[in-house]
Structure prediction request, 395 residues.
Amino acid sequence: MRRTVRLLTGTALAAAVAGRIAAPAYGAETGGLELRPAVAVPGVEVAVDTAACGEGGSAAGDAAAVGAGRFTLAPGGHHGDATGRFRVPPSAQPGTYEIVARCADGGREVRGDLVVALGTVGRGQVQPHGSVKTGVGGALGPDPVQTAAGVAALAVAAAGGTWLLHRRARGDRI
Amino acid sequence: MRRVGNTALAAVSVTALCTGAWLLHGGAGSHAPPQPSAAERRTDGTHGTHGTDGTQDTNGARRRAAPALPHSPPDRIRIPSIRVDAPLTGLGLTAAGSLDAPPAQKKNLAGWYAAGTAPGERGTAIVAGHVDNTDGPAVFYDLGALRKGAAIEVDRRDGSTAVFTVDAVEAYPASDFPDEKVYGAADRPELRVITCGGGYARSTGYQGNVVVFAHLTGSVR
Prediction:
């Protein structure tokens, strides 16, 4: 009996594991031109930071896309990052704008996206509003992998049962 | 010998029958996610930042607000009481101005509003994650089961860990979402953890959000 229980637990566990495939690995984001805030309202000052120009490097920034013109990134951030700032013009329209910086040394270009939004501002930040779409109901419906595993397990049970009945009909002792 | 073989065959058949029935019936977790109970609601009735300066935890000890930490982006969130341990990715806003959600196919990934307050900093930091995806339960499936006084830990890039204590767990309908309560600026370091909830309809999906309110009560270096 104890053996049967252990077997049952083991099989159930194996089936449960088969039904739940491991989570995929998570890749970290790569460096570029960092903007703070990355989502800004018109009139707000945006801080720009990049490590791409090396320690102590400086860069020429271009925020003309959003109508803010050129700005300079000078060394002075964490680990000698180049940092600078520009102001989003009060007349800027909502949308996504590409901000570019070119390193003074070597001419490497880095880019970052600035989103201009019209919204509530709390301490210079744009606050989100409304609910967040963080579910699709997938926990509620049947899991296809699990369903397949269930059908397979029932097939095994049916085959085993049939075989036992077959033996019994032949007069074998069970 | 044959008898042993028959017993084993019978055991395997019974096991397969039970497992099959269990899997087809829904198995583990193919049910609606837990929703917060009335006991976990906000009790102050006002903006959470001003009404209370501490939270009664399960041991009856009051948790004082801790001083704010400097800005540093978060890397990971842990909620030991509901077995959450997930990396954090940066989130922006949708064109409609609502908070974007992390990619749904990564079920153990949460996100933080990267243009806003970093967890531990003074103000309201926002973390969101999926309750489920098309494959089944996701990172914040059990968020609605969180209790007042529970701990939430956020690992930050500067090497520190911000420790928050849960003040309340609420469910809000999408049709009447209290923006100011959830996203509004705070005078002390606060955290909101958001996922989907509040009932599910096949046509319109989840009806709202489960929102966890917490404030900073400590930090570890």
Summary: Chain A touches chain B through 66 residues (CB under 8 Å). The longest strand of chain A covers residues 95-103.
